[in-house]
Amino acid sequence: MKKKGNLKEISAKVSHYLMTLLLPAVLIILWQTGSKFRLINPSIMPSPQRILHAFITNIRNGLIQEHLAASLSRVGIGFLSGVVAGVIIGFITGIYKTLGNLINGLLNFMRSIPTVGLIPLFILWFGIGEESKIIVIAVSTFWSVLVNTQQGLSGTDKKLIEVAQMLEKDKRTVLFKIILPSSFPAIISGIRLGLSAAWKAVVAAEMIASIRGIGYMISYARELSQPDVLFAGLIIIGIIGLLLDFVLIKIQKKIIKWV
Fold first, then answer.
1. What is the pTM of this model?
2. For burial by CB atoms within 10 Å, which of 8, 60, 201, 248 has the most?
3. For residue 42, what are the contacts with CB-CB under 8 A and spacing of at least 6?
């Protein structure tokens, strides 16, 4: 019975992945067919075969690895900085309601400003080096983590807190045994959204001021009229974004089970 259950589970997963890949596969076939019969302008939309060739060529000469390593290192530092700041400020403003009411208006005002719009300001303040790009990534990450942390704390079941108070539990026990575990799912969701925002932010920052990174690779390909390299860069962004999100989903499931 157990083997049959495992086989059914494996079959369901395989079917799920096949269905997920079906539409992209059909679109690629149509795209390649349209390119072959000159139904698509190759100077605007290069064929999948040409994009694959550009991808392989840039892998062999090491350009993709160099640009990807630069982008990932920036994302790593900026993302972690944004997560730490978002969780800390989210907890402080979520637990201390008076302080939260005092500064939430300012935070909401700042959150409404697109991070991309702040890139010129950060370049003016911190130059075109790594600092400005890392700060852009950190700010992009910060807002999702902050908002979800605050929502997680405010969503804690009030009855559980009341029961803990009736049992005369101290504030530290209430915080670490009730409030923190119940807010974990929301915090992890905020971190997941923050990672997506960080990955988008690094590409935008690299397009404006950089000499390395996937964003620079895309911008430079546009200047040289190399749409195949440009599309290869966009595909890399999508693939890495999916992989990062997949890893975070797995971590989220493990943490929620543990909590």
1. 0.81
2. 201
3. 35, 50, 227
Q: Helix 180-208 vs helix 227-258: angle between axes, to the nearest 10 degrees?
A: 170
Helix (H, G, I), strand (E, B) or coil at 190: helix
| Spatial CA neighbour of 56 closest among 212, 230, 232 | 232
Hey, what amino acid is at 239?
I
* 134 vs 190: CA distance, rounded Å: 19
Q: Which tokens belong to 58?
A: 């840039």
Type of residue at 250: K
What letter represents residue 111's amino acid?
R
Residue-wise pLDDT for 83-140, tens only, equals 999 999 998 888 888 888 888 888 888 888 888 888 888 888 888 788 888 999 999 9
Rounded to whole angstroms, how far apart are CA atoms 80 and 122? 19
